Each structure stands twice: as structure tokens, then as C-alpha cells.
Amino acid sequence: PKEPTVKKLEAGEKIRMIWHSRVSAEKRMMPFLEALTRVNKKYKLDVYGGGGDYWRAKRYVMIHNLNVVFHGNADFEMVQDFIGRSHLDVLVSYGFDTFGMTLIEAEASGVPVFFCDPDMKEIVPKGSFVMSRSERPFEMARALNDLLDHPERIEEMSKVMLKHQKEILISNRIKDLIKIFEGLVKK
């Protein structure tokens, strides 16, 4: 995989968002699409994954003329490549995910994240995410529009992600565990 770089939203560029999880009621694709109807058109959302709301979501996008592209289920390398080329990773489940793996993948790629569940703040570093005030589509739209009004925040959040990137590597976690075990053996 390519070495992660700092993400920047250049003047006039559309924010590239990625959704890479199930398209289902629990993951809340439909409320997020409703939020996008209230977001200025300076965005593009790429959706990777399938699920029970897939065709419903595709119809909604067509009816509302949203800038969303559905790729369906894709292989890991393709998704990783698109994560690395995105400005913002989206996970809007609420009270459902206990450990958002999509957020960890975003962190590894230096990509800021967008969520609405305050429990997700425990997963990613402070200053690396946008969180809406609630799970309601109106509040998600408000948070996204605010980000679009302040595009420099993408670069700031990406730098935070990259600064903390090494913390999530499994090799570093293993080293920490070995130190703990060695300390226990010595006692």
C-alpha cells in the first residue's frame, strides 16, 4: 500500500467522502443520504458495500440527484485505495457499533472521519474527526456544511490522524503486550 499523505481540500475541489460498510438500517445509510439533500453540492460520496438498504439507497440517490456513486462489494485493496484518496471517512451508525473498524482503517490512512455517535470519540484521536450534534439528518448536514465552509480543517484533522497512526499498528500493540507480560513474569 502507498504511504499515507496529508489530505487537503483545495479551493474549488469537491470533498471526497467514502462509506465502506454495510448499506443497512443499523449503519444508517438512509438518514445520511437525507442529510446530503441539505448539503451543498461540493461533495462526492463513494459507497463500498452492500446490504438490505442497497437498492432503496440507490433509488433515493437517483430521485434526489445526489452526488453518490455505489460500487457494491469490492475487494480489500480497492477499498483501501479509495480510503487513501478520500478527504473524509463516514460512519454514522448510532448506538450500534462498539468498535468502528472503518474508523481504524481511516486512521491508518490519515483520513479524517465523520460520525454522530459520541462513543466513537474513544476510537480516534481528538482533533481528527467531525461529529454532528446528534444522529438526526439535519444535524449531520449542519456539521458537513460547516466543514465545507472551513475546508482547512481537513488538513488539520489529517495531520492529527497521521501523527497518531503508529498507535494503531498491531505490531506496536503486540510490543506493549510483551512488555506487560515480561513485567508479570519478573514478579
Word description of this protein:
With 187 residues, this protein is α/β, with parallel strands linked by helices. The chain is 42% helix and 14% strand. The protein has helices spanning 29-36, 54-64, 76-84, 101-109, 137-149, 152-163, 170-186; strands at residues 15-20, 43-48, 68-72, 88-90, 113-115, 129-131. Strands 3-2-1-4-5-6 form a 6-stranded parallel β-sheet, with helices on both faces. Helix 1 (29-36) packs across helix 5 (137-149). The mean pLDDT is 85.
Features:
187 residues; alpha/beta; six-stranded parallel beta sheet; 7 helices; 14% strand; globular
Provide a concise account of the structure shown.
The protein is of the alpha/beta class and 187 residues long.
Q: Which range does the strand content fall in?
A: 5-15%
From the N-terminal CA to the C-terminal CA, the straight-line distance is: 42 Å
Quick one: overall form? globular
Strand order of the largest sheet: 3-2-1-4-5-6
Structural class: alpha/beta
Helical proportion, percent range? 40-55%
Largest sheet: 6 strands, parallel
Strand elements, count: 6
Q: Determine the mean pLDDT.
A: 85
SSE arrangement, N to C: EHEHEHEHEEHHH
Determine the oligomeric state from the structure.
Answer: single chain
User: What is the count of helical runs?
Assistant: 7
Using only C-alpha atoms, the radius of gyration works out to: 17 Å
